[in-house]
Amino acid sequence: MGFFLETMFGGLMAGMLYSLVALGFVLIFKASGVFNFAQGAMVLFAALSMARFSEWIPHWLGFDNLVLANVLAFAVSVALMVMVAWLIERLALSKLVNQDGITLLMATLGVSYFMDGAGQLLFGSATYKIDVGMPKEPMIVLENMFEGGLLLSKEDLYAAAAAAALVTLLSLFFQKTKTGRALRAVADDHQAAQSIGIALSRIWVIVWSMGGIVALVAGIIWGSKLGVQFSISLVALKAFPVVILGGLTSVPGAVLGGLIIGVGEKLSEIYIGPMMGGGIENWFAYVLALAFLLVRPQGLFGDKIIDRV
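RESULT FIELD:
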């Protein structure tokens, strides 16, 4: 029982990180109606920015304080991601207002390749580390209930808490603020939103900035756990099934979808993998997403699309 709970806990923690990446897809889709293929590149770019500025700033300013270096690097990285959002809106999205969804989707593919190249040009292509002070050592809990107790990762707990806090804040923002309602109005109909005075340029800069900040938080967590390397952008591939499962328009759906996939792939790898030769963790999420596309294509919490003819 103890091993089962440890495995499930590991799945929940991985699922929260998947949810965090998926959240970037949901935010941009809710406000623009386009699936952002650049989200993985944004996670990588933001992580590279945080890693390199945390190295460069102490050298530039002549101090040796890790906490201050991380705070300043985070502030500079946030400003950089907001500037990237403004450039994307000015140079790409503003030229494609009211275009077909496929046109916007192809634009995000172009943004993805551009950001991959810009990341290497500006920050280098080596493997870098991010040290934000998250504890690496594990801890043992519930020793009185299970023999030997449960071995849990403190780093995973901190990461999950940060992800949960960010998800909560974004959910409140969408539901309770005037800007959040404007974002949803733009997603429903660009032309109608413009007709009532909502500026698409401002909304798109805001939502891409939010997507960039979410990507930065995800990049910091993944970079702290695994190091910042170009394979981080592939994490976004695991977020595709998450948004399919939870629904492209649902923030809670991104969270629940991530948790289901995280737990499902861990448990299936441990308990079913030995009978099938292993490797289930690599394809479990995609098979589950395919099943949902066949049965419930809008996902668990997505809006059902009804076409009247």
